[in-house]
From TrEMBL:
<dbReference type="GO" id="GO:0005858">
    <property type="term" value="C:axonemal dynein complex"/>
</dbReference>
<feature type="domain" description="Dynein heavy chain ATP-binding dynein motor region">
    <location>
        <begin position="393"/>
        <end position="443"/>
    </location>
</feature>
<dbReference type="Pfam" id="PF12781">
    <property type="entry name" value="AAA_9"/>
</dbReference>
<feature type="coiled-coil region">
    <location>
        <begin position="248"/>
        <end position="310"/>
    </location>
</feature>
<dbReference type="Pfam" id="PF12780">
    <property type="entry name" value="AAA_8"/>
</dbReference>
<dbReference type="GO" id="GO:0007018">
    <property type="term" value="P:microtubule-based movement"/>
</dbReference>
<feature type="coiled-coil region">
    <location>
        <begin position="100"/>
        <end position="173"/>
    </location>
</feature>
<feature type="domain" description="Dynein heavy chain AAA module D4">
    <location>
        <begin position="5"/>
        <end position="76"/>
    </location>
</feature>
<dbReference type="GO" id="GO:0045505">
    <property type="term" value="F:dynein intermediate chain binding"/>
</dbReference>
<dbReference type="InterPro" id="IPR035706">
    <property type="entry name" value="AAA_9"/>
</dbReference>
<dbReference type="InterPro" id="IPR024317">
    <property type="entry name" value="Dynein_heavy_chain_D4_dom"/>
</dbReference>
<dbReference type="InterPro" id="IPR026983">
    <property type="entry name" value="DHC"/>
</dbReference>
<dbReference type="Pfam" id="PF12777">
    <property type="entry name" value="MT"/>
</dbReference>
<dbReference type="InterPro" id="IPR024743">
    <property type="entry name" value="Dynein_HC_stalk"/>
</dbReference>
<keyword id="KW-0175">Coiled coil</keyword>
<dbReference type="GO" id="GO:0051959">
    <property type="term" value="F:dynein light intermediate chain binding"/>
</dbReference>
<protein>
    <recommendedName>
        <fullName>Dynein heavy chain coiled coil stalk domain-containing protein</fullName>
    </recommendedName>
</protein>
């Protein structure tokens, strides 16, 4: 039974239908249209090689509409996976480069800021030194005045203490003489002089000149005896008390003067202390400003040192990252053609031997060059469709490490349809059994 091939126009119409609304392709509209046309060419080329392959090796293989639809669908799926993967790597690299650029700009900006901060710090230091000199001068002046005032204060205090002592002694004597003075004052109706006391002295010295004798001899004159005796006692006591009173008044006057001098000295001392406190406050404020600027400048230095260390540490990486970033952009540009080749291989190359697989890839590359579809000149289909770790795992599971076997493994795991394995040596069977052991693969023999 002869299978009818789809005409080229029909193939192009089908690919256009499925790709016209596909917005993920990172290419120009012209390249996209070339991809649509080239998909139909791929199908036609494979159909021609199927006939040729049968003529040479008597192995029948076909391409069908289902093959073509699988090819288109696979292209969209694999391209979406690869563009997402490469896009993520490119974005990470771009982010790293941006961080390095930010660090470089930060160092430049911090350097400029540090110059300004150093200038401000120099001005603040000079201002603080000037204020310190003023504080020192005023402190010395205040100390000098303080010492002078302290001498006056100490002298005044000594006088105050002396006066207080004299006043206390006088008050003590007055207090002691107070009862006798009160008794004498109570008995007297007149004042008495020293002459009168001298005249009375011979009588007062007589043994029988007393109240008892006067009452016994003549009771009427007993009061006169008592009066004269009281006059003599009052004069004696008052003679001693009057100087004490006078001295007390004098000391109280001196005390007032001394206390006034002491208060004046204290006022001068307080004024100087206030002046010194005001200058000290200015100095403290200047030192705080200086310290704040120093802390700010030190923080700026630390930031600049950290950024510089980052730049120095990643200096070599910047070149590599820049090259890698450019490489990712090139890879994204080539991905439209790389995926076309890889998907064509995955959809059509399975039934062919290594010779015809390579032949198909060369024919496809030539067609893509003519249609100006970008692709990687050194494209390795295996590297695009599977990573090295997976290949190593397959080898451990029993799959041979030659390219043909790896390609077969890719077809088995990546193709959208179940493959038929022609496996005379049983290597493929062994690999599949080992690979699917954990999934409880069941083997049937017919």
């Amino acid at each position: 039974m002869r299978r009818m091939r789809w005409p080229r126009d029909a193939l192009v119409a089908v690919s256009h239908h499925f790709l016209s609304q596909y917005q993920d392709l990172r290419c120009s509209e012209d390249v996209k249209q070339s991809v649509v046309v080239t998909m139909g060419t791929f199908q036609d080329l494979v159909a021609e090689k199927c006939a040729e392959y049968f003529e040479r090796f008597r192995r029948q293989t076909f391409v069908t509409p289902k093959s073509y639809l699988s090819f288109i669908d696979g292209y969209r799926i694999i391209y979406a996976e690869k563009i997402a993967h490469v896009g993520t790597l490119a974005e990470r690299m771009k982010t790293g480069l941006c961080k390095l650029m930010e660090a470089e700009q930060s160092v430049s900006q911090l350097s400029e800021e540090l110059v300004v901060k150093e200038q401000e710090l120099a001005v603040a230091s000079q201002r603080a030194d000037e204020v310190l000199q003023e504080v020192t001068a005023k402190a010395q002046a205040a100390e000098k005045v303080k010492q002078q005032v302290q001498k006056v204060k100490d002298k005044a205090q000594l006088i105050v203490d002396e006066i207080e002592a004299d006043k206390t002694a006088a008050e003590s004597k007055l207090e002691a003489a107070k009862p006798a003075l009160q008794a004498a004052e109570a008995a007297l109706q007149d004042s008495i002089t020293g002459e009168v006391v001298e005249l009375l002295a011979p009588y007062l010295d007589m043994d029988d000149y007393n109240m008892e004798s006067a009452k016994r001899i003549c009771g009427n004159v007993a009061g006169l005896c008592s009066w004269t005796q009281a006059m003599a006692d009052f004069f004696a006591i008052n003679k001693e008390v009057l100087p004490l009173k006078a001295n007390l008044a004098l000391q109280e006057a001196r005390l007032v003067v001394a206390q006034a001098e002491l208060a004046k000295a204290q006022e001068q001392l307080d004024a100087k202390q206030q002046e010194l406190d005001a200058v000290q406050a200015l100095y403290d404020a200047a030192m705080r400003e200086k310290q704040d600027l120093e802390d700010d400048a030190q923080a700026c230095r630390r930031k600049m040192a950290n950024a510089t260390a980052l730049i120095d540490g990643l200096g070599g990486e910047k070149v590599r990252w820049t090259d890698s970033s450019a490489g990712f952009q090139t890879q994204i540009k080539h991905l439209v053609g790389d995926v076309l080749l890889s998907t064509g291989f995955l959809s059509y190359a399975g039934p062919f031997n290594q010779e015809y697989r390579s032949l198909l890839l060369e024919l496809w590359k030539k067609e893509m060059e003519e249609k100006l579809i970008p692709f990687s000149p050194d494209l390795n289909v295996i590297g695009l469709l599977v990573d090295n770790a997976t290949v190593s795992e397959w080898n451990l599971q029993g799959l041979p490490s030659d390219d043909l076997s790896i390609q077969n493994g890719i077809v088995v795991t990546k193709a959208s349809r179940y493959p038929l394995l022609i496996d005379p040596q049983g290597q493929g069977k062994t690999w599949i059994q080992n690979r699917e052991r954990d999934q409880q693969l069941q083997v049937r023999t017919y």
